[in-house]
Each structure stands twice: as C-alpha cells, then as structure tokens.
C-alpha cells in the first residue's frame, strides 16, 4: 500500500462516505449501508487505500461510547428501574435462549464445545450501535418495540462482559473457573455501583456550575470529559467502554441539561460512529469467502430467522403485544460489534481457526448490512399483525423526570422560549386551562428553581434546532419567544422559521422599533409590550367612560391592524430621553406651526418627502379641527399645526425644511 499518513486515510474515508451517502440517499437507502460499503471498498481486502489501524479502531469505539452516552440520557436510573422486567427478565431470557440454540446447532455440526461457546456468544449478541441509530433516526426510540429492543440490548452489553471473561478459561479445554468469573463479575458490579452513586450527585452539580459560566466551549468540553472518563473507568475494570458511556449518560438523564448535552455530543457521535461502521466494513475479506460463500449465506439467513423468532416469541409471552414483539425481533436479528471483539480474543487463544473466524465475521457483517432493511420491512409488515395493545409505559412522569416520552407524543402544545417575567405570566394562564406547554431557557438557576417548583422546563439554547425538535417544536400549536434581548429574539426566530415553516410563532418585544424586521423574518404575531400595555390602559379608560365594548374592540383592532402607527411617538418633556440606553434616537411627536411664509405652505404632504427623515404627519390641527392621518395629497395651509412623528435627532432639520429657515 502507498505510504499515507493517518490524516490522508481519514480524508479518503470522509470523501468516500460523502459520495456513498449521497448516492444511497437517491436510492432511499439508510446511510449505515453507505458507511459499511465504504469500509468494504477502501479497506485492506479490496482497494487497500486504508489500513485497519489501532487509531481507527479507537476512534470508532469512541463513536459507540458517545452513542451509548446519548442513549443513557434517554434512560435515566428511575426509568431503568421501571424497565427492570424488560432489561433483566426479557434480556436474560433472550440471551440465554439464543445462546443455547446456537450452541446446540454448533455442537450438532461437530464443532468442539469451547469453540461452540465462543460462536454462540458472538452470534447471540446484537448490534447496539446499528439498532440504536436506526431507532433514533426513525424517532422510534420511545415506542413499544423501541423500548423492548433497548432493554434487551442493555442486558446484552452486560452479557458481553461475561463472554469476554470466560474466553481465557476455555483455552486449552481447561475447566471453566467459576470462582474467578464470580470475582470479576462482583468487581464489575462494585465499580458500576460506585459510578452510579458518585455520578448522580457529582455530575449534575458539576454541569450546573459549568452552565453558570454561559460558555458553550466549556459545556461541550465538560460533556466530553464526563463521557470519556466513565468509559475509561469501565475499560480499566475490564468492562466495555460503551457501558461507561451509557452510565455517564444515565446519571445525567434526570438533569435539565440533557437536551443541550445531546445537541453538543451529536456531532462527535455522528462522525465517530460513521467511522465505526466503516471499520466494520473494513474487516470483511471477500476473497476469503470464495470457497465458503454458501456457508455465509446459509448461516446469515439462519441467524436472522432464529433470532427474530426467538425474540418475537419471548417478547410476546412477556408483553402480550405481537406487533411490538415482532418489530423488536426484526430489530435484534443481527450479530453485534461485541462479536468481533469476542472472536479476536478467541483467535489469540487459538479457540477459533482463521477460516471459521472469517465465516463468522462475514456472517455478522452481512447480518448488520441487512438490519436497516429488516427494520423497514418490520415497520411495513407490523400493521397486518393483530393485537395493537401498547407496551406498558415504563417510566413515571414527574416534574423532575425526563419528558422525552411525553414530548414524543405531544401535539398542539405550546413551546415557550425564555422563562423570565413574561414567560412565567403566560404559563400561569395556560396551566388552569390545561394547555400543555414545554419551556426552554438558558439560565441555569432559573431552570433549577422552576424545575423544583414543578415546571416542564429544560436548559438549552432555543436557537438549536435539534434541541427544539427534541421537545416537539415541529408539532407545537404555537411557539412563543419572550426574550427581552431583541437581537436574541431575531436570531431565535430566524433559526426556528428556517426549519419550522408552518408553526405559528409569536414574538414579544419591548416596543415597535423592530416590528417590520420581525414580521419579515417570519413572526406570525409581534406583540410590542409597551404599546399593548397602553392599549390595555386605554380600553379600561374607555370602559369607565361608558364607551360600548364593541366600539372599544373596533378601535383597538384598528390600531393593531395599522401596526400601532397611532401609538408611535409621544410628546417629550424636559426629563425625557432623546437617546435610549442603546444609543438609538427615540421616536417623538412634535408639533410644528406653519406661518404664511413657511416653505411647506401650498405643498402636498407627498411633496415634502418626509420618508427621507423617517417621519410622518400623524394629524393636522386646522381651524380648531383635527385631521387624523391625513392622505398624502392633502395641501398644507397657513396656520396649520402639523403633528409629526419623527426620530428625536431629526427635529431641528425638519423644522428648518418645513419652515424654510
């Protein structure tokens, strides 16, 4: 192979993946197939452009770590406790039944017992990476079959440790050391318990302090350190790195930072997980299968059939739901990534021949390639099955617990961006009306206080589409932006409208200075707080003056329809500011009296071209009469008093222009 640096090899992988994913998207095929294909084509057994190095192996493992970290965020400890029947009951039965069936078949074919145990372990385990990714992509993680699949996969990750532990004991046909296995399992369980106890108290506190710094970089780095540290600890203890990532995520699953963590980790997960699937494809040696291709096809079909039927049957017995049981069976029918590690370890102890290793490895890879297609097939066939009783909900809903399940099922709810004074007032009206709502806010103290009070609130940046999607923004009946910072409101509106073209968005602002900008950016409604407060006051005044309610509503609707033109500007006094706190000239109302020799006399309003001064005539006082909003062809006369709305810094210039001085 040509001398290449790792950077060049990594670039080849990325370029090939971009081309492959683009091509497969046109064919409506899953991107996982693209990654696997890239690995097969550029790997050492085909074009030999990229070698399977330790660096690629490590980076690909980190992709699985981050995937399991995000999975842990979805499955917090209380939820895992409520899923114990699925994880430890169904998961145990599935692994035991599948392993024994494969072991029996292998022994029947004349394979030695020790080798048969290795093969049964390698084929009994399914691919956490592929199944989880497919469920996330299809938004099916929190469905009935999704939870059954995840529960079984979690137990399989624990069972993988058992299989890896017993391989050395199987070497040389020696007796299995049961005492050593028990000791190692107890050591692993002790480490897991310590991680859970420390993590549940330490990690949420750590992220709360980090969030106070309002630094995106610090938050991302802390998330990476948490996931990788847990992975390193479990790896050091002889457990899988992926299990450590899952534990770190699970410890943060109850925190209000989970959605922000998901968004921050996702880019690393997607890139490194893609590299993992490429590395899987690189291990397929097509040349070695020339004499055994029929065995690979036969074993692959048998494996997919056996695991589908076994998982479906067990899940149906425990959950009494054929549709979800069948779909879970289709999801878990393949071999898994732990099978590669188990076979590699067995090869080092000479328990598996190179030829048998090639056949089993190829079987696992081909079953992985079939998985996205089988999951899609299961989705299409399941409606034809009877019994659509849902799998019981696994986790209790409390104000401090994750709302992922609830938000995945919510429709026509309200999403509130920002939970300051205005946001809190809105929820006080929504709550008695039983209108569901979800809040996104970036103030960690406010999030903590509100969550403790029972609000459905999450920490995160509302400009992040993936965060808003996770709380069901695309299914919302209304999104409300309440930020006092108008620049932040505009950025959030642009981000939301870019992805959510049909959801109504209401924006609260201090005044009407950015009314047109917000409407052009896609705001369905813009509520200038100061002007609406004035309208509320006016409605009370008119009510006390016995003006009919219909007349009051008519006039207020007219003001809103005219974009609050009538309310813009006011007469300033000596204590009024002509420049606001941000250095912008305030809008004022100023009367200008036209004498007989004024330059504006005899001209129409249109001829004055007041638009150049960002000004307009609101009214004309003429012979004790008031002409409100005069038309542009109105001719100005001597002794008219013009009521002009203008920026404060234009007053002197306008007077000079109109009076001719």
TrEMBL record:
Q: What is its main location?
A: membrane
Query: Keyword Ion transport, does the record have it?
Result: yes
Give the keywords, sorted.
Antiport, Ion transport, Membrane, Potassium, Potassium transport, Transmembrane, Transmembrane helix, Transport
Sorted alphabetically, which Pfam families does this protein's record hold? Na_H_Exchanger, TrkA_C, TrkA_N
Localized where? Endomembrane system
Question: Where in the numbering of this chain does the RCK N-terminal domain appear?
Answer: 411-528
**Residue intervals passing through the bilayer:** 6-27, 32-50, 56-75, 148-168, 180-198, 218-235, 271-288, 294-318, 358-377
Membrane-topology descriptor: Multi-pass membrane protein
Which terms in the GO cellular component ontology are assigned? endomembrane system; plasma membrane
GO terms for MF = antiporter activity; monoatomic cation transmembrane transporter activity
Q: Which GO terms describe its biological process?
A: potassium ion transport; proton transmembrane transport
Q: Where is the RCK C-terminal domain?
A: 577-661
The protein here is known as Kef-type potassium/proton antiporter, CPA2 family
């Amino acid at each position: 192979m040509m001398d290449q640096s790792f950077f060049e090899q990594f670039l080849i992988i990325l370029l090939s993946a971009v081309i492959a994913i683009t091509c497969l998207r046109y064919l409506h095929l899953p991107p996982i197939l693209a990654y696997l294909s890239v690995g097969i084509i550029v790997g050492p057994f085909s074009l030999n452009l990229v070698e399977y190095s330790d660096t690629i192996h490590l980076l690909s493992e980190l992709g699985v770590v981050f995937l399991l970290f995000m999975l842990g965020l979805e499955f917090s400890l209380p939820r895992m406790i409520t899923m114990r029947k699925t994880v430890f009951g169904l998961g145990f039965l599935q692994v035991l039944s599948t392993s024994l069936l494969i072991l029996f078949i292998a022994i029947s074919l004349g394979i030695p017992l020790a080798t048969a145990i290795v093969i049964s372990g390698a084929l009994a385990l399914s691919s956490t990476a592929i199944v989880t990714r497919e469920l996330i992509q299809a938004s099916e993680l929190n469905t009935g079959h999704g939870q059954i699949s995840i529960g079984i996969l979690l137990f399989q990750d624990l069972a993988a440790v058992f299989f890896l532990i017993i391989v050395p004991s199987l070497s040389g046909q020696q007796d299995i050391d049961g005492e050593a296995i028990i000791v190692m399992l107890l050591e692993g369980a002790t480490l897991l318990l310590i991680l859970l106890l420390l993590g549940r108290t330490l990690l949420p506190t750590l992220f709360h302090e980090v969030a106070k710094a309002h630094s995106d970089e610090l938050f991302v780095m802390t998330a990476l350190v948490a996931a990788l540290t847990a992975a390193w600890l479990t790896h050091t203890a002889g457990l899988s790195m992926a299990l450590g990532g899952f534990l770190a995520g699970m410890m943060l699953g109850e925190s209000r930072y989970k959605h922000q963590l998901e968004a921050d980790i996702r880019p690393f997960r997607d890139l490194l997980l893609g590299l993992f699937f490429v590395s899987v494809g690189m291990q397929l040696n097509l040349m070695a299968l020339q004499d055994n291709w029929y065995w690979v096809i036969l074993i692959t079909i048998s494996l997919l059939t056996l695991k589908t039927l076994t998982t479906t049957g067990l899940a149906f017995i425990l959950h009494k739901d054929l549709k979800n049981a069948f779909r879970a069976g289709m999801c878990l029918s393949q071999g898994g990534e732990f099978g590669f590690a188990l076979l590699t370890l067995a090869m080092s102890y000479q328990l598996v021949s190179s030829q048998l290793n090639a056949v089993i490895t190829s079987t696992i890879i081909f079953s992985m390639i079939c998985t996205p297609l089988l999951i899609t097939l299961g989705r299409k066939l399941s409606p034809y099955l009877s019994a659509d009783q849902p799998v019981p909900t696994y986790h209790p809903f409390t104000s401090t617990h994750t709302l992922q399940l609830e938000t995945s099922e919510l429709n026509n709810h309200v999403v509130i961006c920002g939970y300051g004074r205005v946001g809190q007032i809105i929820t006080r009206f929504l709550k008695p009306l039983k209108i569901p709502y979800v809040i996104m806010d970036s103030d960690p103290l406010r999030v903590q206080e509100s969550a403790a009070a029972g609000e459905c609130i999450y920490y995160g940046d509302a400009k992040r589409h993936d965060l808003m999607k996770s709380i069901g923004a695309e299914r919302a009946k209304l999104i409300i932006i309440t930020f006092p910072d108008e620049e932040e409101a505009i950025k959030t509106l642009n981000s939301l409208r870019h992805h959510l073209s049909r959801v109504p968005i209401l924006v609260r602002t201090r005044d009407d200075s950015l009314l047109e900008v917000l409407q052009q950016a896609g705001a369905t409604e813009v509520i200038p707080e100061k002007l609406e407060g004035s309208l509320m006051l006016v409605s009370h005044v008119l009510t006390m003056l016995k003006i009919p309610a219909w007349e009051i509503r008519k006039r207020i609707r007219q003001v809103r329809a005219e974009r609050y033109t009538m309310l813009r500007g006011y007469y300033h006094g000596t204590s009024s500011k002509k420049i606001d706190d941000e250095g912008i000239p305030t809008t004022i109302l100023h009367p200008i009296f036209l004498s007989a020799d004024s330059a504006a006399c005899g001209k129409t309003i249109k001829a004055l071209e007041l638009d150049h001064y960002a000004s307009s005539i609101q009214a004309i006082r003429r012979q004790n009469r008031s002409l409100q909003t005069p038309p542009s062809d109105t001719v100005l006369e001597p002794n008219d008093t013009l009521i002009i709305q203008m920026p404060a810094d234009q007053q002197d210039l306008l007077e000079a222009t109109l009076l001719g001085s």
